Amino acid sequence: MRFKPLKPLLIFLSIWIFSFSLLILSWNIVIPFFIPTIFGIYYLLKGLYKLTLKLRVEGLNYIIIGLLLISISIKLFYIYYNLLILIALLIGTFYYYKKLHQKLDSKIKYLFHFVITINIFLLLTPDTYILSKINQVYDKKNWSSKITWNDFQGKQIDSSKFSAQIYTSLNYKVNKVYNYPQAIITSRMNKTLSWKRESINLNDPRLLKHEQGHFDIAEIQTVKAIDSINNSWPLNYDKLNKIIIHFSKINSELTRDYDKYTKHSQDTTYQKVFDSLFDSELRTN
């Protein structure tokens, strides 16, 4: 039976789009990474099989397509992504395609156009943007200058003496193959751990402003960690982790100090001081 490359192409595209729609469920977040890999391995094996049959051009076609599919997953996963390697692969593909495109079957051309287009799109899309969207699952919120009480979706802690509590952190991925940027760091709010009492006055902006301050602290430390890493390129994996952990600890310390001095928003004088400090830091960054 003659192999029809357009059919697996459409299957791949349909499943990949569907898998991204499932990102609202955190356990499905790995699906978009694996689907291009599965199809990539399929084409690599098919290419190797063609080479054993002495079908050199046909075999190389499938191998190159397989590599470009796998590169999609590597870009999304980021840890082993290297910009220069992808550029070299695309340049080699362009040269190969230009030399042989007149001899290629129309369906193979569609496959080449498809994988080249996706890789160029991902190449031009910042890593931070891609990962922030992928990581923005239902219970996480990337830093925003304006949170709302609707973001506090956690169960009220009756034993706590506080009226509300926000959970923020520095979320990161570290690259292992000397890519630039070397790490992706974002500040995130965990919505399912952040909570508020049902009895609070939702129309009083002071408490929400105070909780926003915790998120601002995380964002400020995120920017400082990114600057520290970018100014020290290149660094190995262990050193990168140490820098991020260092700023994560500072984030925790400043969060405690913030609550200590403002008395959890009750000391309006200190609260105004911190509000001005956060606004100044965020404008500078």
Topology:
Elements: H1 6-21, H2 31-52, H3 56-77, H4 83-100, H5 106-124, H6 127-134, E1 140-142, E2 164-165, E3 168-174, E4 183-190, E5 195-196, H7 205-230, H8 237-262, H9 268-284
Antiparallel strand pairs: 1-4, 2-5, 3-4
Helix pairs in contact: 1-2, 2-3, 3-4, 3-5, 4-5, 7-8, 7-9
Elements, N to C (H/E) = HHHHHHEEEEEHHH
Cα Rg: 24 Å
Structural class: mainly alpha
- Relative helix content: 55-70%
Distance between the termini: 60 Å
Number of helices: 9
Total count of domains:
2
Strand numbers in spatial order across the main sheet: 1-4-3
- DSSP strand tally: 5
Strand content: 5-15%
Q: What oligomeric arrangement do these chains adopt? A: single chain
Mean pLDDT: 86
Dominant shape: elongated
Low-confidence stretches: 22-28
Main sheet properties: 3 strands, antiparallel
Question: How is this structure best described in words?
Answer:
This protein folds into two domains: 120 residues; 154 residues, no CATH class. The protein is 61% helix and 8% strand. It has nine helices and five strands. The longest helix has 26 residues. It is elongated, with a radius of gyration of 24 Å.
Keywords:
three-stranded antiparallel beta sheet, 285 residues, 2 domains, elongated, 9 helices, mainly alpha, two-stranded antiparallel sheet
